[in-house]
Amino acid sequence: MAGRRAVETQDSRFVETHQFIQQHGVVLDDRESATEQLVSELARRGWQWSLDVGSAEVTKAYTATGTERHSILITGSNPVEMLTIALARAIRFDLAYGHIPLESIRTDFALRGPDGRIVALVEVKNRERWTERGAVRFRRNAVVHGIIDPYAQFFLLVSQDVGFVWDQRDHPPLDVLPSAQFPMSPVVSHYLRWVKPGERLYGSGLELTVERWLSDVVDDVASRPKEPEAALAGTGFLEAIRGGAIISGVHLDRLP
């Protein structure tokens, strides 16, 4: 993929890309400052940029993932629209390679794959009686408000009773049903043996339990509860995280 270049022309997709970058936390001000905002965001994400009459080009090196250089060339007449489209393409490329800026992650955990790329985001919400439709509404609202990234490969929503996973590799719509639903009560009873049936967990107790469980899955610890993985088989999630690492929220701002 070395030297790859994507060439785009300025067209009606500007509206779509403008909405896309808003979902990723980039809300443009007036036209006078929008150009500065866009190039600052590109620089923050590690992209070099150049703006000429009739074109904008952004470039980034990906030596850590085997891609020497990736360039995106946008042609058109409006600098703001060209840079907006370029930024949207840059964000999508970053996410395809697991280069999600850590400071933009607002979920409880992130999971790296064995190659170091972020492949999954995990949100712990201990509501009672989660339904599949309720989980779909939560994911949709979380995407709209920039809490989760719809271009991360996987997203997990977990309570002490049940968990849901979405395979997002094909960029599904906001209202798509989860790829799988898995039981969490075996996890709670395994790691928190003193919790009585029907007792609800509050505070960080469930988050720490989920973190320990995911760490054991990643490291293939033999004594971990296997029931959730039986339900997760076939989703691609287990293969994506095996041999990787879990990053808890308190550590996100300390990592490169």
Description of the molecule:
- Helix 1 (13-23) crosses helix 3 (79-96) and helix 2 packs parallel to helix 3 (79-96).
- The chain has a six-stranded mixed β-sheet with strand order 9-8-7-6-5-10, sandwiched between helices. A four-stranded mixed β-sheet has the order 1-4-3-2, with helices on one face.
- It has two domains: 4-96, no CATH class; 106-254, no CATH class.
- It has 256 residues and is α+β, with helices and mostly antiparallel strands.
- Helices cover 35% and strands 23% of the residues.
- It contains eight helices and ten strands.
- A hairpin with a 5-residue loop joins strand 5 (109-112) and strand 6.
- It starts with a strand and ends in an 8-residue tail after the last strand.
